[in-house]
């Protein structure tokens, strides 16, 4: 399992980085109205902040 904490404090968890990227995109779009966020930006966020659980 992989997880990260959004800057808003939301805990996001998934079985792997690919699923985490999907969940992070959904979270950012729904809660932060990010609009289109690139895969590269999502991958950077995951690389910097994701951890194993």
From TrEMBL:
<protein>
    <recommendedName>
        <fullName>DUF1059 domain-containing protein</fullName>
    </recommendedName>
</protein>
